[in-house]
Hints:
Strand content: 25-35%
Shape: globular
Largest sheet: 5 strands, antiparallel
Strand order of the largest sheet: 3-27-26-25-24
CATH topology: Neuraminidase
Number of domains: 1
Radius of gyration: 21 Å
CATH superfamily: TolB, C-terminal domain
CATH architecture: 6 Propeller
Helix content: under 10%
Distance between the termini: 45 Å
Amino acid sequence: MPQGSPASPNDVTDAAPVLVGLRALYARYLLAASVTSVAAVALAGPSVYPTGTTRYDPERAYNSFVLFAGGDNVARLIDLNGNTVRTWKDAGGHSTLINPALNGGHQGHVFVTLETTEGQGTDLVPGRTTGRISKTIGELDWDGKVVWQFGEKAPGGRAQQHHDWARLPNGNTVVLANLVHPVSGFRLPQILDDVIYEVNAEGDVVWKWVASEHLDEFGFTAEQLKLVRNAESADYLHFNNLKPVGPNKWFAAGDKRFAPENLIVDSREANFIAIIDRHSGKVVWRLGPNYPAIPRGVAARKVPRPVDQISGQHDAHIIPDGLPGAGNLLVFDNQGEAGYPRAPLQITGGSRVLEIDPIKREIVWQYTAEDSGMPGWAFRSTHISAARRLPNGNTFIDEGQSGRLFQVTREGEIVWEYINAFPRVTKDASSGKQSVNYQLYRAQPVPYDWVPAGTARAEKAVPAPKAGELRVSSLP
């Protein structure tokens, strides 16, 4: 869920109310075709920079729609030229498309947060005096009608959903949520636990999984477990991802750990990715929380190589059958501060997108800024973000911290790029000054056939000028 969105109270502390790292963003976007100015706003970076589609090669990009929720809590479906095709109100700001193949063939349905609620003290978010969480979540059809919802029958009458959800082949929905409760052995009187609910069409919970019941399965050493139990934050694991494993070649070859109905999750705070067996509830496959250091220089670019230090990752999933790299793990490695103890990070390094062979535990492909001819730090999002493989072999990337969406080829060439044109404009609580935040929690590529037939779209090329050629004329 987007840091600081109403339904994600624990992410608020991760994101500054102004753009972080905008200097790198601005340097990168001197290549842009247009600029937009935010008047009378003091920013931590440049005050003039492009928004919308800044480059687009329809011949080399995978042409699709894109779904994301802007800072105004409106979910938007756009084409690659940045035109808004459809909108849905989303109180939580992290909408997710529903695959028609899992939804009775219904096109254009999305998950959104329908309603949030506020509370005082530890009943909602331990350690916070106030907080907003999701009270009711739901499924909206193409016209915005609610066709399914969950919340009233949730424990305490509040969904407390965060970050992720997914429709299952049986028609039920898995929901990643929070559970506030005391856990023996923890220093804090109550923790903000991660829980998974399977919810049926009537909104009833039919299966439940609680993270704190599986601490000894996450790969912590005895010393690390002490740090976990003595964590200062009640949000000690901070799961940010939940997906069914889906059909894959490993299961087809007899590896039951990768059963399609199993669930993959990842913990931002603890630096691990895990697969949960749907029948036993046990963790049957895991990556992390302990990794070797990232090699320096040329060695850090060599693939394949053993998986090295991942930190603060997001959006881990098995690449679906039928796509290039099917069966491998794709993950946005933020290289953000995380771990028990905190993982050592490269001071001038950036984020990475990693494709990993889950059996050999090797990095078989990666994307860093160097692949696009930029310094490593130029691609960096220490929180949120996502990456998805596309049918033509490109990779869709959401550099969430700066609100930048783009597609890269296997070789790292950028063939489409878009900057969030719908920032969150608020007043900073401490200074009282207006602040602007362009971040996007998780944008998703959306195939054309997801929408009803006849939906308009554009595929107009947007060439980018050479570096340094874009200029704003001097004022008279």
